[in-house]
Amino acid sequence: MRPLPQRVPAAYVRRHQPPECAPVPESRFPDIANAEPLLDAALKDAAEAGEAVILVLGADWCPDARAFAGFLDADELQAALAGRARVLRVDIGRHDRNQNLVRRFGLGRRLEGVPAVLVLDAGGGVVNPADVYRWRTARSADPGMVADWLSPLVDTAKGPRA
């Protein structure tokens, strides 16, 4: 029996990849070491626009975080959130990046799971503290389920309408 090669050449992959296979998408969680200023700016902008902020703490190594981030890109969810919420995706690395945000929202010293999804009001308060880790199994969901879950939370975060 021949040993498997340690690294598969790219030419082999291109030649043998089934046509229905989509290329791996680019990073869903930007490589930013300190996302706190981005969050503060998003909260300020959202407050001025009367919107909520959806903060997704995740990483590209996690299939559930990638799935959830992909749902946020779906047309159905984009339409549901338009003018109601802003989304900020933050890379937590291997639990070694942006840990200041984990502590800022009282999530302990380390996240219990990825992704952690926080719906924030204009003051930066967490609207969904009991189910921040709801989407640790996002691969088994779909954009409609995410929209149904997010919609009432976003309404709560936005507060009563004038």
What does this structure look like?
This protein has helices at residues 10-16, 36-49, 63-73, 75-81, 99-104, 143-158; strands spanning 52-58, 85-91, 116-120. By secondary structure, the protein is α+β, with helices and mostly antiparallel strands. The protein has a single domain (26-158), classed as Glutaredoxin. A three-stranded mixed β-sheet has the order 2-1-3, with helices on both faces. Helix 4 (75-81) packs parallel to helix 6. The longest helix has 16 residues, at 143-158. The model has no long low-confidence stretch (mean pLDDT 86).
CATH superfamily: Glutaredoxin
Order of helices and strands: HHEHHEHEH
Cα distance, first to last residue?
73 Å
- Describe the global form: globular
- Give the class-level CATH name: Alpha Beta
Q: Judging by the overall fold, what is the CATH architecture?
A: 3-Layer(aba) Sandwich
CATH topology: Glutaredoxin
Quickly give the structural class. Answer: alpha+beta
Summary tags:
alpha+beta; Glutaredoxin; 162 residues; 12% strand
SSE blueprint:
Elements: H1 10-16, H2 36-49, E1 52-58, H3 63-73, H4 75-81, E2 85-91, H5 99-104, E3 116-120, H6 143-158
Protein name: Thioredoxin family protein
Domain Thioredoxin: 18-155
Concise synopsis of the structure shown:
This protein is α+β, with helices and mostly antiparallel strands.
